[in-house]
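hey so u asked for the seq, here:
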Amino acid sequence: MNTEIVTQHPEVDDTLRRYVLRRMGSAISRLSIQIKNITVKLDRRKTQPAEQRSCVIEIQIDGQAPVIVNSAGPHWLSAIDQAVESAARAVRRQLKHTLHRVTPLQLLKGQHAS
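ran it, structure tokens below
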């Protein structure tokens, strides 16, 4: 599983990058076998009355449409935490629906991931 963090803001330092990686790892550790790639985009938006930090997470799952979630908050940590939790729920929900369409014979043969 490859995780890429994309940002153009200098305040997103190595500490914040490690935080993103740790949160993503703990939120989807059991699901990581079927995840190919994760892209986390951190950005700032000027809104009224204050500037918002946004976190967009795109997760590529083997053989399925990508899961994309977006969250915004007044601070990086709140935007990241909310996006990570939403992404983990969405991935679990998508994989649950996929497993309901798989026959027991496909599970035994290991064909459910394709």
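The chain has one domain: 2-109. The mean pLDDT is 85.
lmk if thats what u needed
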